[in-house]
Amino acid sequence: MVEWSESERSIISGIFSTLDYNDVGPKALCRCLIVYPWTLRYFGTFGNLYNAEAIKSNPNVAAHGVKVLHGLDRAVKNMDNIKATYAELSVLHSEKLHVDPDNFKLLADCLTITVAAKLGSAFTPQVQATWTKFLAVVVSALGRQYH
Amino acid sequence: MTSLNPKDKAAVKTFWALAQGHSEDIGRDALSRLIAVYPQTKTYFAHWKDVSPNSANVAKHGVTIMTAVSDAVTKIDDLKAGLLQLSELHAFTLRVDPANFKLLAHCINVVLAIKFPEDFTAEIHMAFDKFLAALALALSENFCYTLSHSLCQSATVSPTASASLPQSLPQPLPVCQSLPQPLPVCHSLSHSLCQSATVSLTASAEVSATVYATASPTAPATVPLPH
Fold it and tell me: Do you know which PANTHER family this protein is assigned to (chain B) (predicted)?
């Protein structure tokens, strides 16, 4: 089981309480689709994704970005059992969506950069370390049920 | 060879014109974050007394690194040639696991996002990320012990080299047909690399065999090779 100190817990819940999910979610997902274009392969039904502008204004992408953030919220509320919390989501991403788990890390990196841009210098190296640890646990839990 | 198209290069140069003045701050912050977020990278700095993210050594080294990145932007059209000496340094002396270049690149991107929240757009991020990946590739290109032909050509011969060769090296030394003769010898190749040598006597310009080439002329004096 992953150990979280009091300080780490408060850093994570503190960051999430300041985030506007409707803003950060879409921004992070758009960044992932633009910076790592092979991730577009999972969104074939989303409509026009032919260039950066189209991606940024695509309502399906935006809605999905928000969904991802709300999914992360579940981990924030269950930090002591992220593995179990994400068991179903892991099965979904593996069996139904067929997402290569490497891509979780890419989205996590883009989310980190989006949050860094939002928080500015408040996103100190120590905060970044805690944030990265949290996302690493999430990514690991999401990849857990792959076989 | 990089995979940067003209559009990527233009984006990198434009953005860097904006960021260049802050290069020292960016370097200090990026290396500090690398150490804080990925503590395993501290293993490369074990020779410093203080390897904490806020130490003076880390700050100074961050500046060194970012100055080199900034210089690489000017060499963006041929990173492989422009970074040859740094590549040799990282491959033969520092022996940095190339996976760590990706971690540092991520930390650089985080710092850029913090410093330039509006300008570090997804498009600029993509181009800059590609540039850092190309830079990392140029730095790790010489890791393979099948040394590139350009290294062979820059070889110089040390008169004392043959005296310092370990006796267990195959004699005569295997050669690449396109190498200059007499065969230049490496001062600093580890014995383990020598022992894993394989020979290909094809005349192709592309080196397909292990060769013994000197490191750059500024390489350290002949190192006694362990037996």
Answer: HEMOGLOBIN FAMILY MEMBER, HEMOGLOBIN SUBUNIT ZETA
